[in-house]
Amino acid sequence: MAVRAALIAWPLVVTGGAQAESFDLTRATCADFSGMSGNDQAQLSLWLAGYFAGGAQKPLLDLDKINAAPAGLQALCAKSPQLSLLSAETRAVFMPAPAP
């Protein structure tokens, strides 16, 4: 249910408001994630799940992992605030490591 709400709300956040905001995820760190509201963390977690699934060419989103991701990322980010949000460590929150 929370994922559906995030999917519905995401376009409103991205396009809403008089001033457009951008967020360069290639530079985003755990510190950025930790500074977000819970709602923004949930929305970014959904985006990250899609990003990592797309990169792995796996067209399946695990809703349980997406719902648990903000807490998992918060725990990871508490240990490593400068960690990139597009790292292998954050990817592991959403899906298993790729097979060698």
Task: Provide an overview of this structure.
This protein is mainly alpha-helical and 100 residues long. It contains 5 helices and no strands. The chain has helices spanning 2-15, 30-34, 38-55, 63-79, 88-94. The radius of gyration is 13 Å and the shape is globular. The model is unreliable at 1-10 and 12-18 (pLDDT under 50).
In short:
The protein is built from 5 helices and no strands. With 100 residues, the chain is mainly alpha-helical.
Total count of helical runs of at least 4 residues: 5
On the 0 to 100 scale, the average pLDDT is 82
Q: Compute the number of structural domains.
A: 1
How many strands appear in the DSSP assignment?
Answer: 0
Helix coverage percent: 55-70%
Structural class of the secondary elements? mainly alpha
Large-scale geometry: globular
Series of H and E elements: HHHHH
The portion of residues forming beta strands comes to: under 5%
The main sheet comes to:
none
Give the uncertain stretches in residue-range form: 1-10, 12-18
- Cα distance spanning the termini: 35 Å
Question: What radius of gyration results from the CA coordinates?
Answer: 13 Å
